[in-house]
């Protein structure tokens, strides 16, 4: 009869539909399954590297950073100095543990975890304001080479198999190429604000240092003197 589908063709249609369903569901299930299994791994291993700036050599630093009031005071001092000596950049207060690490970010983080697990929390102790002769060591807070600080520097150099110059722990306050007399002046001004008698609670460095209980991994391409491209890509706790 016209308009009525026979039993035979109904069955064929059903089978065909099942085939189509099966053909599309099985690969879909495989894809979803793979995605679910891979997801946790991906989160751990893959790093979003959109911060990388083309034209700069990929380079990282390990930093230890003060927190709370100490960070606030130092942040303010860096801002004050950068404003007084343009075009000096403004940056986060930190003591570099290891500079110039030229391996992919993912590997830097993996090694930072290894390093952190080999360390105990330690104390970075400030010594005095000092000044150097290169851009990235213009005016800084020199830190004491105490046991914890030197040990961390040694272990970092071992973990990253790097033979960098001897560790001179310091917290930079000004990045600049200003002449020596200006450096002396800037150091004197910083000293007055952070330690001076005429200083007030807003600028006085009350603490003698800070406790390190984490390591920050920063993208710090050395060509970028403006520090505009610098990014914190991970913080690894020391436990
Ligand atoms: C600390 O540094 C400041 C500025 O550079 C200097 O005037 C002062 O004499 C130094 N103090 C000590 C104890 O070395």
TrEMBL record:
Pfam families assigned to the protein according to its UniProt record, in alphabetical order: CPDase
MF terms in GO: 2',3'-cyclic-nucleotide 3'-phosphodiesterase activity
InterPro entries, alphabetized: Cyclic-nucl_3Pdiesterase, Cyclic_Pdiesterase
Keyword Transferase: no
Keywords for this protein: Membrane, Transmembrane, Transmembrane helix
GO biological process: cyclic nucleotide metabolic process
Transmembrane segments: 16-37
KW Repeat (keyword) present: no
Name of the protein this chain belongs to: Cyclic phosphodiesterase
Species of provenance: Chlamydomonas eustigma
The organism's taxonomic lineage, starting at the top: Eukaryota, Viridiplantae, Chlorophyta, core chlorophytes, Chlorophyceae
